[in-house]
Amino acid sequence: MRALCWHGTQDIRCDTVPDPKLEHPRDAIIKVTSCAICGSDLHLYDNFMPGMERGDVMGHETMGIVEEVGSEVTNLKRGDRVVIPFTIICGECDQCRRGNFSVCERSNRNKSLADKVFGHTTAGLFGYTHLTGGYPGGQAEYLRVPFADKTHIKVPQGLSDAQLLFLSDIFPTGWQAAVQCDIQPTDTVAIWGCGPVGQMTIRSALLLGAKQVIAIDTVPERLAMAQAGGATTIDFMAESVVERLNEMTGGKGPEKCIDCVGLEAHATATLDSMYDRAKQAVMLETDRPHVLREMMYVCRPAGTLSIPGVYGGLLDKVPFGMAMNKGLTMRMGQTHVNRWTDDLLRRIEAGQIDPSFVITHTVPLERGPEMYKTFRDKKDGCIKVVLKP
Amino acid sequence: MASGLGWFSIGLGLVELLAPQAVSRVLGLRGQERLVAAYGAREVATGVGLLLSRDPEPWLWGRVAGDALDLGTLATALDRQSDRREEAGLAMLAVLGVTALDLASAWSHASRRRGRAAARRRLPDYARRSGLPASPEKMRGAARDFVVPEDFRTPAALRAWGVANEVA
């Protein structure tokens, strides 16, 4: 089959690789009908996440048709239409029973490695380093889904792939980011980053009833899309984020701050990011946590920081004393996708939201390598790329 | 070319920073060692900026401004009494050559930036891509029926106790 494979820094290729096979009675094989490039795939593309190996198949936003199921998968059959969540879940361990699916204790087949690096393992993820299991991803013609009886979202026929695909990651991720803030009708929610997750977070915060949603970015088309979703925007290259946020909140700062940027904050927009970039270049730091610093500084005391943005490792000069003294609550983590998808699917079916608004490019799988670059460089108005195998 | 100029900038800067006496002596700028060291620090900073930045244009214009400073300073060594007039003149010629490279590179980046800006103006308009069936104002709070799970709520100790328990 054809698949997008990682070959090194900024080197993704469309290769021919062996078709996946059932390896366990709980597996299923999916014929992929749509998949997408996620912002967190760019951290792999730029090689900021450790644990990738040459030839690894990329991708964790996938949907398709069930082709084959293992003997223990009784709730799926050939021909079922499914969206595959990016977190692989067993559904039986202590964390899964609590609904903490992104930290499933059993689905990471490289658990001992993750235990050493993280202290305790997190869930296995599709196409996202060997630290999270080294599972082949879904930017391919076929995908093997481990623990398939739990790791799926069955979806109806009446809706398009474009409307449903983002149940796999960015829609529940934006939703969880907003839910983590426990939004009250009096809240101002500030959201850093208007990429795909930022766009979903903006709409989630609005639907959950935030009084004011403020979105921060510098890319004009992303700011335009954020405004379309009801956000007031701040262009961080043109104005002071802290001053504007304070102006818009009567000098008190936003109650809720959401980081949809993560480890690759704009490298030259601020002095602290330039410092981080220099340290990254000599391997003294892994991430550029400018947004975390800014959120801690500007958030209203007793406020909440929600962090769906991906961080990879070791961060420097994070003003934790500031966060402690202001009594900030911090919520973060990969998304517990299946915890939210029943509710979100119902909202899509009811027409409350149509997540396909974020798609700017739909291309054949073979054009994936060039689209990684286009997406990374934010060229050609690119906000979200869907690939069709 | 920008990264080449970046490495050149760091190299020259380190020489000025680490051996300001020697540089000042050769160029007939005795007594200006601190100024030469400061110029070295400027060169190193500009070089690092050029190498690390995705958009080198501001750093290239910074180099052009630095070249002007260098030329002005070297001009003071062209005094008839100076025994290093010839060296200072040669150094000015070299700086003029580098200035030409800096200007060419900065102009080239500016022209590409204008091209990108023009392309951006031709981009599709996303101002109507809300994903919502009605205006954002009408949709505000449409999902208030969602019950935030207890483990995702703000910890009880941090909820607005003062509001919920008004004290007279």
Automatic annotation (TrEMBL), chain A:
Pfam families for this protein: ADH_N, ADH_zinc_N
The keyword DNA repair is annotated on this UniProt entry: no
Classification via Gene3D superfamilies: Medium-chain alcohol dehydrogenases, catalytic domain, NAD(P)-binding Rossmann-like Domain
Family designation: Belongs to the zinc-containing alcohol dehydrogenase family.
Annotated Alcohol dehydrogenase-like N-terminal domain residues: 25-149
Residues that span the membrane, as ranges: none
Keywords for this protein: Metal-binding, Oxidoreductase, Zinc
Domain of life of the native organism: Bacteria
PROSITE patterns in the cross-refs: ADH_ZINC (PS00059)
Protein's name in the database: Glutathione-dependent formaldehyde dehydrogenase
Translocase found in the keyword field: no
Cofactor(s) in the UniProt record: Zn(2+)
Alcohol dehydrogenase-like C-terminal domain residues: 196-277
From TrEMBL, chain B:
The name this protein goes by in its record: Cyclase dehydrase
Organism: Siccirubricoccus soli
